[in-house]
From TrEMBL:
Belongs to the peptidase S66 family. The keyword Hydrolase applies. Pfam families: Peptidase_S66 (PF02016), Peptidase_S66C (PF17676). It comes from Flammeovirga agarivorans. The active site is at 106 (nucleophile), 200 (charge relay system), 267 (charge relay system). This is LD-carboxypeptidase. Transmembrane segments: none annotated. Keywords: Carboxypeptidase, Hydrolase, Protease, Serine protease. InterPro entries: Carboxypeptidase_A_C_sf, Class_I_gatase-like, LdcA_N, Peptidase_S66_N, Peptidase_S66C, S66_fam.
Length: 297
């Protein structure tokens, strides 16, 4: 997968929740302003209850985009829910022959895990229906820089001083915690051995985060990671009787490796794009961590 160029053909795919048509059209205009060619077919505009069309329709459009050698990148329209309903039907053979960037987050974690597991990189970042949000202008500009100029932004976070002067290099994988936990025991279970694990979440109570992290730990997977990067854990609901640990404490309790917090990736603004399946180096200086991109797999 190389950098994009003006005139490249890309696909907008709605593989999860039903989309806001006006928001997606605004996002497509951004892509066209970048010089990319986007189809006018609006196959992403279907609706089947809360989903962007029936399962058969969504998998058909996703498979077409993955298979087409002329398409250089797939931009997911939005997240929500729906990819786990169709992921087992995806045939990766033609994608392996003609890999391309797949961009999105949240429910799109299901795609990221599969792509990273077969040895390719993907981009965790803003989705097309968000491209009209002023709060994401910087993040979208960074996404364009990644795609067109191979300019990957540095991430910054906080870390315990006991890890000061430590340097950690590894492949970053991960995404939405709920989706990662949901795939344990399936063919698309994320391989996190010797990896840097990135996690983000939205709308989950602390006890729910604890349940998912406990499932990861009981599976044995958490014992294999080099470090954990905590993105945004957003919109945490209040509890009538609070769980005894905060979200940060829950995650730190589960591992004996460095946990970097305060990283601006997830469901809030900004949503700094990152390359999942890419090599990163974490440099710990006092109580701060600099997370620098090195290369793809």
């Amino acid at each position: 997968m190389g950098i994009l160029q003006r005139g490249d053909k890309v696909a907008v795919v709605a593989a999860s929740g039903v989309v806001n048509i006006d928001a997606v059209l605004d996002g497509i205009e951004v892509l066209r302003a970048w010089g990319l060619i986007v189809s006018d077919d609006q196959q992403w505009a279907a609706e089947w209850g809360s989903l962007a069309g029936a399962d058969s329709r969504r998998i058909s459009r996703l498979q077409e985009a993955l298979d087409d050698p002329e398409i250089k990148a797939i931009f997911l329209a939005r997240g929500g829910y729906g990819l786990t309903r169709i992921i087992d039907r995806v045939d990766w053979a033609k994608f392996i022959d003609h890999p391309k960037w797949v961009i999105g987050f949240s429910d799109v974690t299901t795609l990221h895990t599969c792509i990273n597991n077969i040895g390719f990189a993907s981009i965790h970042g803003p989705m097309v229906a968000q491209f009209n949000k002023k709060e994401l202008e910087v993040s979208i500009s960074q996404l364009k820089g990644m795609l067109f100029y191979d300019e990957v932004p540095m991430l910054k976070g906080d870390i315990k001083e006991e890890y000061s002067d430590r340097e950690i290099t590894g492949t970053m994988v991960g995404g939405n915690l709920c989706m990662i936990a949901d795939q344990i025991g399936t063919y698309s279970e994320l391989d996190i051995e010797d990896k840097i694990l990135f996690l983000e979440e939205v709308g989950e109570k602390p006890y729910q985060v604890d349940r998912m992290m406990t499932r990861l730990k009981r599976s044995g997977d958490l014992n294999k990671v080099k470090a954990i990067i905590m993105g945004q854990f957003s919109m945490v609901p209040d509890e009538e009787r609070p769980f005894p640990l905060t979200v940060k404490q829950i995650i730190k309790e589960k591992v004996d490796v460095p946990v970097i917090t305060g990283v601006t990736c997830g469901h809030e603004y900004p949503n700094t794009p990152i390359i999942l399946g890419g090599q990163y180096t974490i440099k710990c200086i006092d109580d701060k961590a600099l997370i620098e991109y090195a290369s793809n797999l």
